[in-house]
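Hi R.,

As promised on Friday, here is the backbone we talked about, encoded as structure tokens. Could you run it through your design pipeline when you get a chance and send me back a sequence?
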């Protein structure tokens, strides 16, 4: 990532900015997102996850983000080194930080704890079939679901483009390695969160 090239900023900032700048932005974003997680009751309890709860302790989103970033960094480093032994760890660290930005934006959707309350209302309709589903809950749930899918696609695209660039790989080997890394990073983060909490 030493050469700065013109590219799509939203989906491949790794070609446009040097790793030092990406790391600074990513670290600041992680701290701000952790604070937002506290204020909006969000838990980043997985490498690719954001869930809302009734209350959140201020330290929980920080620990969650550390675990998620560590899991992405560790697994993607291993896969990148297998794909290309010359891959630099600093580049993987930048990718692990920047790829989580779309997830952080979703914290705002729980303003007033609305996403948590909608989830609870929808859950009650499952346990109590006679209960009617509020229409506003359905509409907001669909909107949040769509935003979550877009954020997930954006995040996965960032991870893929980053791995492709820093490992200088392509084809089936890259795709298999990427899928393997994504699944393992998510599984590792979930395991660590489970063991800690």
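Update: got your reply. Pasting your designed sequence below so it's all in one thread:
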């Amino acid at each position: 990532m030493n050469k700065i090239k013109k590219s799509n900023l939203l989906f491949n900032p790794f070609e446009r900015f040097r790793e030092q700048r990406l790391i600074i932005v990513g670290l600041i974003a992680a701290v701000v997102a952790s604070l937002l997680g506290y204020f909006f009751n969000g838990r980043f309890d997985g490498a690719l996850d954001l869930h809302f709860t009734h209350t959140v302790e201020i330290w929980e989103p920080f620990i969650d983000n550390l675990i998620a970033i560590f899991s992405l960094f560790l697994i993607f480093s291993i896969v990148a080194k297998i794909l290309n032994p010359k891959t630099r760890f600093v580049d993987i660290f930048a990718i692990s930080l920047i790829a989580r930005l779309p997830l952080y934006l979703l914290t705002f959707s729980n303003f007033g704890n609305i996403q948590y309350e909608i989830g609870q209302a929808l859950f009650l309709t499952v346990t109590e079939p006679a209960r009617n589903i509020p229409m506003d809950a359905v509409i907001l749930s669909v909107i949040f679901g769509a935003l979550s899918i877009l954020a997930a696609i954006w995040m996965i695209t960032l991870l893929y483009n980053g791995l492709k660039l820093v490992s200088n790989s392509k084809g089936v080997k890259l795709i298999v390695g990427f899928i393997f890394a994504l699944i393992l990073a998510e599984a590792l983060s979930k395991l660590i969160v489970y063991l800690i909490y």
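One thing I noticed while checking it: The chain has one domain: 13-196.

Thanks again,
M.
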